[in-house]
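#struct-help
A.M.: can someone run this one for me? Single chain, 444 residues.
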Amino acid sequence: MNLLYLHAHDAGRYVQPYGFPFENPNLMRFAREGTLFRKAFCAAPTCGPSRAALLSGQYPHQVGMFGLPGGSGWRFDDYDKHLVNQLNEWGYETVLAGVQHEDDHKAHFPGIRYERVLERETPTRGQDGEFYPETIDKVESFLATRDDARPFFLSVGIDEPHRDNLARPELNLHGKSNRFTKTRYYDPDRLDWRYTAPPPWLPDLPEVRKDMESYREGVRIMDEYMGRVLYALRHNGLEENTLVVITSDHGIEFPGGKKTLRDQGTQVMLMIRGPEGSPFNGGQVIEPMVSHLDILPTLFELIGKTPAHQLEGKSLLPLVRGETETLHEATFAEQTYHGDLEPLRSVRTERWKYIRRHSPTGPWMRHDGPSTPVMEACGHYDRDRGTEELYDLYLDPMEACNRIHDPDCAAIRDDLAQRLEEWMEATGDCFPSGDFPEPPASKA
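D.P.: on it. Structure tokens below:
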């Protein structure tokens, strides 16, 4: 069975199949053909740690990915934990097109042994491990001309809707973060934002609505790119023997989203469609909580392989087949570095979320884009939040009212605090001690 891993950058779950007012016809078609998970969570709200967790099946601190690869220098402690390196051992043809964030792309990600990197074979602009408009052309060519009898694992990493932060003058892109695309020029001032709603946790102000309309354009472009890959898969006769996973790394790049352990930072789209007869087909919608960490156990069960290292998630198959009503009583998430150090840990149940932080002040990490100065002026950043937060996600889904000192919630607080402490101890997390490793780049 072939495996297609189709992933977006900073999309969260703000796409049409999750009920948001965007036009994503390709994702909608995929959702109606496959299985959509309503409450899917990443293990970390930033790129490198989240992707490292998904592709290793372990939490970021367990694989040594406390922050971003590249400039900060974070890497796996052992790249044999990476899915690609294991699939190589099992006879898969492993192929990368576009983005990866588990190793330094400027160093050609030496730890991840992709058999083929399409950007290297016909260089577009000399940088593999990044996404370009031509990347999809190369994916279409790969799927149309492939004659290898082995099963393949194809990772297609799309930059959209990440904000534009990489100057590409040939595309009229200059690294201005008011655009949610790194590969397609558009002028945000020409978008009609007057009828756009802001993210539901941010104020209804013109600057925020304009920013959200730009996100809408980035998601439209993302949907177009994904649609081309899915079309090529179908029309080259490969759909009948390919499992497709569509997801994003973490939440959207707005204040209160990415770089936080709120649901807006950790909840992601997750849709899976399998070959004919697969339990993932038929337009199912799964309500219970699942995690990115569940993807590898699912893939390994489907292809009949056992990894050499311990996996922290569970196979999704019993849930999809209706053999169990829930998979997890709680999910866990972490943040340590995103350039700066801001260590956070959380545990989430169906109704409650408990967050622990080392500093009572925060969030420290600013967000890119024009919404940030608006929220900064409102006092969103650098607030005294205490070192513990507790939210009732049913009565307070935007996580605005901290119930940590509410005597009516004392038993819930104590239970979740104990669960978090037990999880940190079981997974070898350095958070309790506060002794965090320094970014490798700073040591160099």
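A.M.: thanks! DSSP finds 13 helices and 17 strands in the chain.
D.P.: also worth noting: Residues 206-235 form the longest helix (30 residues).
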